[in-house]
Amino acid sequence: MAMNTYMTFLMQGTGTSTLTYAQIVPIKDYPDFMNEVNTIDVTNLQQKMHTYILGLLDTGGDMVFTCNYDPADYQTVRALDDGEDKDLAIWFGGTESGGTVTPTGNDGKWSFKGRVTVGIVGKGADEAREMQIHVVPSSDMTFSIT
Q1: CA-wise closest residue to 144 among 95, 96, 89
Q2: Nearest to 128, CA basis, from 24, 28, 31
Q3: What is the spatial distance between Cα 104 and Cα 97, in angstroms, rounded to a whole number?
Q4: Cβ–Cβ < 8 Å for 129, 68
Q5: Contacts of 120 (CB under 8 A, 6+ apart)
Q6: Rounded to 5 degrees, what angle do the CA atoms 112, 36, 1 make?
Q7: Is the separation of the CB atoms in 42 and 125 below 8 Å?
């Protein structure tokens, strides 16, 4: 069954022994999140085809999330930009009741650690102001479903 991107959330976990997650700010898009596999060529001069072994996994570099610019949202993300790793997650799925959206992650949760920075996106006439959240992952992603 196909699903659309409605109800996708960028979350931050807080707490010590048990993390409690809350949405950071509403996002407009999210990056690919998959580990790129490095391969190591182990071909010798007696082989007519290349042979490889798996190398280290790569997070693929920083993850970029685009958001509409709002001064309060900018300050919220800016407060996370302290050079420390944060517990972060991307949640698929939520509920809506009386106009209030609540993240649930019932369609999947990807949790990881990373450092957060935020910047303003350049724009021209008749365009929406946007900001981008950059996350540099420092751990592998863990998948769960509730």
Answers
A1: 89
A2: 28
A3: 13
A4: yes
A5: 69, 74, 129, 130, 131, 132
A6: 75
A7: no
- Ranges assigned E (strand) in 42-129: 52-58, 63-68, 86-97, 100-120
Please write the tens of the pLDDT for every residue from 69-119: 999 999 999 999 999 999 999 999 999 999 999 999 999 999 999 999 999
Q: What is the mean pLDDT of residues 32-60?
A: 87
* Identity of residue 70: D
Q: Is the CB of residue 73 less than 8 Å from the CB of residue 25? A: yes
Q: Which residues pair with 36 in a beta bridge?
A: 58
The residue type found at 71 is P
Is residue 24 helix, strand or coil? coil
Domains of the chain: 8-33+63-144 (2.30.110)
Closest CA to 36 of 12, 10, 63: 63
